[in-house]
């Protein structure tokens, strides 16, 4: 089952997401090292991973065990966001040069920028876990829209229950940036954080509404309420049809009747779409980590790195800055902004 017998996998953080990653990495590497402060993780490893995979309660012990083998190690950072930056620098210090970091890359824009700057200067292949970036979902949607719906997508609308503007919403913000081919111009938002985050009561879970404006009259709007447990819905609007995005990653296209459109093609003569949809993008795997690991372990250009990573974070945290400052936030955010370097209690 091991696909990279010469490499060692290092996973920092074995919560709910980390455990998914651990299963993938255990099959991929001849040896997997898992670091997590929870002692119950050792039992989980013994019961769920292959013989020879090891557990450490702290990163220093794991790095000592790696010793001079850092060049053969691929690191995956899956602990809490507030620890992402320090973990990245610790891995970089010991010589690890292939790193996948879960989103958000950090809990603040400033350390995220420092991470990408160090990755560039030290030759570290760093990427962040937004699966749709690696499945080329945005490219598939743009192509289908132009070929079947008379032009490119122009808006995304997402709404639902307790999904969090950051925890779930960050995936959609990043997808919108890739779909529209640019970072947003500005964002306006209202909302607040509740202490209902399943990862810990000290972590925020943001409810509210946020709208990002992109060039060429394109928009993303998200609304989540922490008073409801109903699953979210996401719709992409194109000139003569829509795409529905399921939470599992599947994207389905629905078209208006072409005869109806041809009889009166004016955009103000709106009509319903046919109920028969066409799948454009399939459901994501439970963990899309393998795609990211393939990239950081290759010699090809990274799909998602550098300024793209920081731009996505700015777009997401810009909404929280808009909420806290009660003002529209323009992009790129000025480094002199009072909230530019704020650390957010997010996952």
Q: How does this structure look, described?
A:
The chain has 347 residues and is of the alpha/beta class. It folds into 2 domains: 4-130, NAD(P)-binding Rossmann-like Domain (Rossmann fold, 3-Layer(aba) Sandwich); 131-347, Dihydrodipicolinate Reductase, domain 2. Helix content is 35%, strand content 25%. The chain contains 11 helices and 15 strands. It has helices at residues 16-28, 40-48, 59-66, 84-93, 109-122, 131-135, 137-148, 164-180, 258-263, 289-296, 307-325, and strands at residues 4-12, 29-35, 54-56, 73-77, 98-101, 125-128, 155-160, 186-194, 205-214, 218-224, 233-238, 241-245, 251-255, 278-281, 329-330. Strand 11 (233-238) and strand 12 form a beta hairpin. The longest helix has 19 residues, at 307-325. The two termini are 32 Å apart. The mean pLDDT is 94.
Q: Can you tell me the overall shape? A: globular
Gyration radius, in Å? 21 Å
Number of helices: 11
Total beta-strand segments: 15
Search tags:
single chain, 347 residues, alpha/beta, Rossmann fold, Dihydrodipicolinate Reductase, domain 2, 2 domains, 9-stranded mixed β-sheet, 6-stranded parallel β-sheet, 11 helices, 15 strands, 35% helix
Topology:
Elements: E1 4-12, H1 16-28, E2 29-35, H2 40-48, E3 54-56, H3 59-66, E4 73-77, H4 84-93, E5 98-101, H5 109-122, E6 125-128, H6 131-135, H7 137-148, E7 155-160, H8 164-180, E8 186-194, E9 205-214, E10 218-224, E11 233-238, E12 241-245, E13 251-255, H9 258-263, E14 278-281, H10 289-296, H11 307-325, E15 329-330
Parallel strand pairs: 1-2, 1-4, 2-3, 4-5, 5-6, 7-10
Antiparallel strand pairs: 7-11, 8-9, 8-15, 9-10, 11-12, 12-13, 13-14
């Amino acid at each position: 089952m091991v696909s990279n017998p010469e490499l060692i996998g290092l996973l920092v953080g074995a919560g709910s997401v980390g455990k998914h990653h651990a299963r993938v990495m255990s099959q991929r590497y001849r040896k997997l090292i898992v670091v997590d402060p929870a002692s119950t993780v050792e039992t989980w490893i013994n019961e769920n991973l292959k013989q020879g995979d090891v557990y450490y309660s702290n990163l220093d012990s794991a790095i000592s065990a790696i010793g001079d083998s850092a060049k053969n190690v691929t690191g995956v950072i899956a602990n809490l966001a507030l620890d992402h930056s320090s973990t990245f620098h610790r891995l970089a210090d010991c010589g690890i040069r292939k790193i996948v970091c879960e989103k958000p890359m950090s809990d603040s824009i400033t350390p995220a920028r420092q991470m990408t700057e160090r990755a560039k200067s030290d030759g570290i292949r760093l990427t962040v876990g937004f699966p749709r970036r690696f499945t080329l979902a945005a490219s598939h949607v743009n192509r289908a829209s132009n070929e079947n719906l008379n032009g490119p997508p122009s808006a995304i609308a997402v709404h639902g229950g307790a999904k969090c503007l950051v925890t779930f919403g960050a995936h959609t913000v990043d997808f919108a940036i890739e779909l529209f081919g640019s970072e947003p111009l500005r964002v306006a938002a209202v909302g607040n954080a509740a202490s209902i985050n399943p990862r810990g009561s000290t972590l925020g879970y943001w409810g509210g509404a946020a709208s990002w404006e992109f060039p060429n009259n394109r928009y993303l709007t998200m609304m989540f309420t922490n008073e409801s447990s109903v699953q979210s819905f996401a719709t992409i609007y194109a000139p003569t049809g829509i795409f529905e995005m399921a939470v599992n990653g599947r994207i389905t296209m629905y078209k208006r009747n072409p005869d109806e459109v041809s009889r009166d093609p004016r955009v103000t003569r709106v009509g319903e779409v046919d109920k028969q949809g066409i799948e454009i993008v399939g459901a994501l795997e439970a963990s899309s980590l393998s795609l990211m690991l393939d990239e950081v372990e290759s010699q090809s250009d990274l799909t998602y790195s550098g300024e793209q990573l920081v731009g996505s974070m700015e777009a997401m945290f810009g909404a929280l800055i808009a909420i806290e400052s009660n003002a529209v936030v323009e992009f790129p955010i000025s480094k002199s902004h009072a909230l530019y370097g704020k650390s957010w209690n997010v996952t």
